[in-house]
Amino acid sequence: MAFVWQAQVYARGQLTIPSPPHPNIMMTPFVVDYHGQRFSKYPPGWSVVLAFGYLLGARAWVNPLLAGLAVWLTYRLGQKVFNPAVGLLAAFLTLLSPFFLMLSGSLLSHTWSLVLSLIFALAWLDTFVYETKVPRWMTSLVAGLTLGLLALTRPLTALGVALPFFVHGLILLLRGGRDVRRRVLLIGVISLLVSALFLLWQYAVTGDPLTNPYTLWWPYDKVGFGSTFGRQQGGHNLFWSWISLKKALTTGWSDFFGWGNLSWLFLPFGLWAVRRNRPAWLVGSTFISLAGAYMLYWTSSTTFGPRYYFEGFYSVTLFSAAGFLWLAGWSKAKIWKNGRFLVAAGLLAFLVSYNLLSYLPARLQGMHGLYGVERADLLPFQTEEAKALTPAIVVVHIQDTWTDYGALLDLQDPWLTTPFIFAFGQGGVPDAAIKADFPNRRLIHYYPDEPYTFYEHPREK
Fold it and tell me: What is the pLDDT of residue 414?
């Protein structure tokens, strides 16, 4: 909801807008009111991209199109680091992954971040490892820009993605020639300059470059360890980091490929197959580095799978593909006559079929109506009877959870100029005060357990 709100504001060229009267009852989840201004707590990178979708009338297409690009980039990375067969199989595994499909069908920032992570990895390898027709200054520029944009989208993710390449960069600075050192420094300078826009954004919305908007919504929502970090008793510590890591990986071994809890099956063979492939180890370290970085954060998020690790998912798909092909004896001639290949191919076909016929449909069905939010929630406000009541401010009386209210916000723009705008019924603001704030709107009361019924006054208990 906050990304959608933020994208609409950015589409008009604004970073913040004035807070409405009684902002506590006109709230949008994870949108902050601070010093009379309203803005999203989330960094700006993804919402700028989503804003273009709004301007083109294609909001729902942004992530699916990026997902297609991510599949192709996964193939290109596999082709470059391994061979075309690994790239093709990794792209295939990505395309059928419940983890990938759930996030690509959402409005979350991860698919955009995955694209940036993939482009960064490709550009880095083209700059320092492989011969390419593209000038090295251009690949250096792309690497620096994409890493900086990733920091503007998901800062902790950028740290996790960058860490293996940072170590590689230090080695190159110590052992490389003058041109190599210059390219390392160029990437570092560009990425830092772009990343610095994050502090500029924080200054623009809060008045202080070091004030994290996350903490304006939840003061404990910070990266690190200690009593003031997180909601756990005593704060976030290594024990809770370990619990979060285990929870995320347990979910991931199911959601990555939908093979029950066996998504790790080909990884050990992949580790063996690429043991002498140094670029592969660099690319494969991304997932591990991300998992380590997010141990600093107080919570794991597994509703969509272990989404904090999504930007390193190509590590899993590429190593799994390499492991399968090694197990199948792919490099041998006439592989279709090779019993080893036939057994491995049969096993993979069984696992993929299980995912497509059983795991994936059930997992996607479980995402339908997530948090109780469905498109049907909007239908009562799209009837002719409801339209006749506009312009109106609707006081929503929560029956179950806050999503009774949040589900309706798709009908409302950030500037409260739409036919319907909504107020949180548990805010304790009397009707007279609401009417005074919006004198040109009809005030009606709405109870989600009675859709299609609108009250002029609160109904009797």
Answer: 96
